[in-house]
Amino acid sequence: MSGYAPHTDGDIAAMLAAIGASSIDDLFAHVPAGLRARAAIDLPAGLTEPELRARFEALAARNADGAGPAVFLGAGAYPHWVPTAVDQLLLRSEFLTAYTPYQPEVSQGTLQATFEFQTFAALVLGLEVANASLYDGASAAAEAVLMARRVLPGRRTVWVSSALHPHYRAVIRTYVRGLSDVEVREVPFATDGRTDLGALRAALDPDALAVVLGQPNVFGVLEDVARAAELARAAGALSITATAEPLALAMVRPPGACGVDIAVAEGQSFGLPVAYGGPGVGLFATRERYVRSMPGRVVGETVDAHGRRGFVLTLATREQHIRRERATSNICTNQGLCTLAVAIYLSLLGRQGLRALAARNYRAAHAVAGRLEAAGIPRRFGGPFFNEFVVQAPAARWEALAREGVVAGFPLSRWYPALEDALLVCVTETHGARDIDRLVRGLAAPAARAASG
Amino acid sequence: MLLDELLIFERGAPGRVGWPVAESLAGEPAVPALPPALQRDDSLAGFPEVSELEVVRHFVRLSQWNYSAATTLYPLGSCTMKYNPVVNEALARLAGFAALHPLVPDHLAQGALEVVAGLEAALAAASGLDAVSLQPAAGAQGELLGLLLVRAYQADRGGARRRVLIPSSAHGTNPASAALCGYQVAEVSVDGRGLLPARAVAAAMDESVAALMVTNPNTLGLFEEEIEAVAAAVHARGGLVYMDGANFNALMGVARPGDMGVDVMQFNLHKTFSTPHGGGGPGAGPVAVRAPLAEYLPVPRLVRTEAGLAWSEEAPKSVGRMRSFYGNFGVLVRAFAYIARLGAAGLPEVTRLAVLNANYVRARLRGTYHLPYDTPSLHECVFSDRHLQDFGVSTLDVAKRLLDYGFYAPTIYFPLVVKGALMIEPTETETKETLDAFVDALLAIAEEARRDPAKLRNAPHRTRLARLDETRAARRPVLRWQGR
């Protein structure tokens, strides 16, 4: 017995009597006997809670937990400090164990917090309206493309920057696999690591549906989003940006202010642990005039029967439970609790804290890049960056570092075979001076290493 | 004030800092500034400036305005609002899981990969299917993946099949997922017993049908008694059978989809496997398939090598990726912990007691509430408001009045095959006493409908806010704080 089921023998007997059944088996009599006979589940026996804890603690101990190796990885998941208050509040059972707020009178906590999340998402991305979240940054980018198709029916080609995170590109391709009226094509990146806007300009024609860029892109490089949006607009297409590290937008001009039509982001940086890649949360914002084409749940303000302010799920006529096959998306469950984490985190950091944190990341990463350059390890791309950059360093050196307990970055040749010896290095507020010294010394050219002692 | 909490944006004062961070560290060198054209120039105007206590108090107050599965019975049909074991929260927060970066070399993530491998194997065992992907972030994304797999499979076999059959009782995500995949939806009606007749499926089948999407047990809580014949009829014309596994809580140890003839299905880990619903996610929607479909599953795939477990991108026929990295890993840890705790005997016990609880509620309410389908049901039961209409009382009124009695409401107006549906799923973790109190409340409400229908039409009365004006919200959408 698991301990989670509360039934006594007396309960079961009384309930069966009320039902008019002689055994629990009777309740399954209409399930074909042949199926029931084969239905045993081949699993080990259950564990007590202490056994369970011991087993999972042993599993967790076989992973790099941040206290072990020094890890300078970003590439779509970013280690940041999470204030203790965030997780403490996420554990409030009233938030944790509620569901989609179908009964608004007894779900105002979730609804108001979601309304606050939508406000934060719109502010961060510099746009007018945001939804109540999508699964992650990558699927949000794919949903943005599908939305563009609803706004501009008849146009066919989606131009995706090849410097957009490869997972985001892959998910966009997966989401349009079943659609015969959309084609995804890629725009190359230039030698400075930014999308080649000259190539984009030449490619855009009256068939262009949308342009999709990362900001920052997968190399950590900041794009000229304003120019890209201008080119898209001139061609009559929509512009879309996808941001994997939204902390950058606390100091970088946000997509909406650059003229972008739809901006999405992965919200993990705002109060969620990296957690081996999930759960995170997809932020999705756009212009007011497109709101009825937007995918996903959305919370709106209203009043109750006595005129008091309250919040409800709204614009449901876009959604699957009403429109069925004509819905703007099939999404139902989204990332509710993760939106709460984002709202709490951004409230705590606030206007000053978030800007200070962004400045800290920017300075720390630039300081490391400067030290590496001085040690004979140049940056691969000259474009401006935030807290992540690509260096050119012999693979043998970072492989040796890995054996000493420093994961120096992500080898980009795994995603871009032409980028041999290119390492994507991420530096945030979580990285201490000692680990940074180990990184710089380990990557440095032997002569520079000897000089720095 | 306790009952009227401002928005966080309406609180605070300029210059107040909730969680101070230093902009730079002592001794850090000067670095070049960001080019001016790239700089944000609104200095985050609109962001709150509040203290840590203000934030804590704000969200604690908001939390108190929610009903939740931890505060009361939350009998939302089709959502399986069972107890979410507290220990699983602690396990998911172990640093080895929570602080693990998804791109560390595989040898630094062997424990996490064991969780993935173990959960894949457990779901395969429970479903009787051959291969599992844990990547989808929720049930609806699992549906989308399942149909993309169907599409890839059919395309490889030369079939430009363009239609998907869906029973009239299906959840709205089914047709929406089919459309997202480029399929035309053809509806098949359920019969007078609420079941999908194999004959009707056979009649609707032809070489243009890629798959049938069937929910089993269906949204009326009924086991599809002809499922084997239904699957045979679909297979006979080269179609595949997709099963929506939202109601898997009724099947563990009772019937395996693989044995029924199902080719593809999704699980909802936040339903059957107890991970917290979080006010609407995060969930997880793993997909299980029969062997011939395995080569189309998303990348990366987990493989066992001599050096241990590893991710492999080598799957030329894969449909690609559904999301970044590997799935909602934190949710997967909780679900695997739940399965490990319950084990081979515990999971079937979950199903037996969930079905017992639902049948008990059904037995006590029938007679008072109209039961549109008298067919034996499993983990949930669906009533309608037909007996109450004479008093001018609707399902919505009953739902709102239940809130006054301290219970969350059932799923209402779904499935669409029942007019004014009240869909109740109590789950196995509720005691008989709680179920009795819930049934007593519904019986009292039926009595109130006769005596004092206005009281129901104006309900709820005891919640912080009265009934909300949803029409106004949709007519003039205010979707964010508008500024001071």
Which key features would you list for this structure?
heterodimer; A: 453 residues; Aspartate Aminotransferase, domain 1; seven-stranded mixed β-sheet; three-stranded antiparallel β-sheet; 37% helix; B: 484 residues; Aspartate Aminotransferase, domain 2
Mean pLDDT of chain A: 95
> What is the radius of gyration of chain B computed over CA atoms, rounded to a whole number of angstroms?
25 Å
Continuous helix count of chain B:
14
Could you please say which CATH topology of the largest domain in chain B applies here?
Aspartate Aminotransferase, domain 2
What does this molecule look like?
The complex is a heterodimer of chains A (453) and B (484). Chain A has 15 helices and 14 strands. Chain A has 453 residues and is α/β, with parallel strands linked by helices. Chain A has three domains: 9-60, no CATH class; 70-81 and 351-452, Aspartate Aminotransferase, domain 1 (Alpha-Beta Complex), CATH 3.90.1150.10; 85-345, Type I PLP-dependent aspartate aminotransferase-like (Major domain) (Aspartate Aminotransferase, domain 2), CATH 3.40.640. A seven-stranded mixed beta sheet of chain A has the order 2-8-7-6-5-3-4, sandwiched between helices. In chain A, a hairpin with a 5-residue loop joins β9 (299-303) and β10. The mean pLDDT of chain A is 95. Chain B has 484 residues and is an alpha/beta fold. Chain B has two domains: 88-341, Aspartate Aminotransferase, domain 2; 345-469, Aspartate Aminotransferase, domain 1 (Alpha-Beta Complex), CATH 3.90.1150. Helix content of chain B is 34%, strand content 11%. Chain B has a seven-stranded mixed beta sheet with strand order 1-7-6-5-4-2-3, with helices on both faces. In chain B, strands 10-12-11 form a three-stranded antiparallel beta sheet, covered by helices on one side. Chain B has a two-stranded antiparallel sheet with strand order 8-9. The chains are: A alpha/beta (453), B alpha/beta (484). The interface between A and B is large, with 204 and 210 residues.
